[in-house]
Structure formats: structure tokens, C-alpha cells
Amino acid sequence: MRKKIIAGNWKMNLGALQVAQLTEGIKHGLEKTNPKYEILVFPSFVHLHMTVEIFRETRVKVGAQNFYPSKLAAYTGEISCDQLKDFGIQYVLIGHSERRQFLLETNEFLNKKVLHALSEHMLPMLCVGETLEEREAGKTFEVVKEQIHKGLKDVPLEEVSRLSIAYEPVWAIGTGKVATPEQAEEVHAFIRQEIQSLFKPEIAENMSILYGGSVKPDNIAELLAKPNIDGGLVGGASQKADSFLALLK
Ligand code: PGA
Q1: How far is the CA of 97 from the centre of ligand 1 (A)?
Q2: How far is CA 195 from the centre of its chain?
Q3: Nearest Cα to 123, choosing from 40, 57, 223?
Q4: pLDDT tens for residues 37-80?
Q5: CB atoms within 10 A of CB 86
Q6: pTM above 0.85?
Q7: What b/e string do you get for 137-173 counting C-beta neighbours within 10 Å, with b at 16 or more?
Q8: What's the 8 CA to ligand 1 centre distance in angstroms?
Q9: Which residue ranges make up each domain of the chain?
Q10: Which of the two ends of the chain, N or C, has the fewest CB atoms closer than 10 A to its terminal CB?
Q11: Residue 160: CA atoms inside 13 Å, Cβ hemisphere, count?
């Protein structure tokens, strides 16, 4: 069964007080949310403990925005999956365009993260997507194909079912310019086809592929109505309790 997920990516946008207000706000509105969707939030590392505590005994899952692909070792400033697992964290984001762009993470390095996270029994979510320049040059499919093939290189068949994908066109992230449901569906269907060619039809059929990029309460329903869009990875609109709850309805 394909998992349906609405995930909030809080990025580096919130201070402790804002996280406390946001998490309490979400918690109080949970009974009015759609039970078909798994709810997931990605706070900064420094807020993981607080967020896990506040959402304890609720259906909200907490994931990490990043990790370093190594067991416990001397990597100053980095965080290991072992440390995340101490908090019960399973979901990890990999390959968000901000990390590709600002932290210079390459497809090869992201592949190491995917392989490591899977070997650690985590639930990685690999983000892919083209820039505006690439879309205008007609390279969307080529870029996404390369990100998928390089990112998922050597992933063992028995581990791939723990992975999900987020298609996030870079030109739609934080810009208010959302992809049309047709534009998004076209790429989601393409990604599913690529997953099928790399693995097996059942794997592709059961893989959750989320859309991200200016998802808002007023555009989410038409995106989720598409057959290959299994949820949303949401930045801005996930960082206020009212708008996140509106998305979750
Ligand atoms: P946005 O961000 O919803 O603010 O466009 C999405 C993301 O970066 O995951």
C-alpha cells in the first residue's frame, strides 16, 4: 500500500518559542485532520527533543532535516543516524535543493546518504527537482532522471521499500509559484516509471512520491487529486499551525 504523507519542513526558520507555539497549535487541531494521511514534521536538530516530547502519544511523526552518513565517529558538528534513533527518529530528508545549492551536496554524496540511511533502517525521503533554467531548457526529465539514478545507485531491492521521493521543482520552492497539477503529475508519473525500471513494478506502485513547492491550503486538494501525487512536502505553509492544519484537513 502506498503511504500518503503530508510533511512540514521547518528548515532553519523557527526559534524555540515559535516551535513551542507551532507544535502546541498543531497538537490541539489534530482531531480535525484527515486520518488517511500520515503527518510528519522536520524541525531543526536543536528542536527535535522538544518536538518529539510534545508530539509523544499523538500520530505526528518527527523526522530530521539532515544527518551525516557515518556511524558514531569524529565528525565535528555532524549528527549520526545512531543519535537520531535515540530520539525514535526514523524519517530523514536527503537532497533538498537548499542542501544541493548552498551546501554543495552532489548526487554522489546524496547516494552515500541514501545507502547509509537505509542500512541504518531509517526512512529516507529523497528530494529531486529541476531549476527554472533547466525547465526552460527542456531538461526537466533529464535532470530528474539523473538525480534518481545517481541518488539510488546500488540501493538493495530488499531495502528500497523504505524510501520515499519528493519532487520539488526548485523554481516553485518558497516562490509562491506552484507547479500546475498537470506539470507535477507528469514528473511524478515519470519518476514512478524510472523507479520501475530500476527496481520492480510493485516497488514503483507502492512508492510514495510527494510534491513540494509552494503547497498551500488553497492548492493542495487539486495536487493530491492526481493519481501519482501521494502527499506534500511543505515549507512556508507548514510553519503556522493554522495553515498546516488547513492542509491536513
Ligand atoms: P515551500 O517549501 O513550501 O515554502 O515552497 C517547500 C520545501 O522546500 O520543501
Answers
A1: 10
A2: 17
A3: 40
A4: 999 999 999 999 999 999 999 999 999 999 999 999 999 999 99
A5: 11
A6: yes
A7: eeebeebbbebbeebbeebeeeebeebbbbbbbbbbb
A8: 9
A9: 4-247
A10: N
A11: 22
Task: Encode pLDDT of 213-246 as tens digits.
Answer: 999 999 999 999 999 999 999 999 999 999 999 9
Q: Is 96 a catalytic residue?
A: yes
How far apart, in whole angstroms, are the C-alpha atoms of residue 154 and residue 38? 28
Q: How far is the CA of 217 from the centre of ligand 1 (A)?
A: 13
Burial of 57: CB neighbours in 10 Å, binned 0-12, 13-18, 19+: exposed
Locate 149 and state its grid cell: 539514478
CATH 3.40.50.620 fits 4-247, yes or no: no
d(C-alpha 225, C-alpha 211), whole Å: 12
* Residue 223 three-state SS: helix
Q: What is the largest CA-CA distance in the chain?
A: 48
Pocket test for ligand 1, best of 216, 234, 247 (most atoms within 8 A of CB): 234
User: Grid coordinates in use for 218?
Assistant: 488553497
Instruction: Say how far apart CA 178 and CA 22 lie, in whole Å.
Output: 24
Is 49 assigned a catalytic role?
no
DSSP state of 181: H
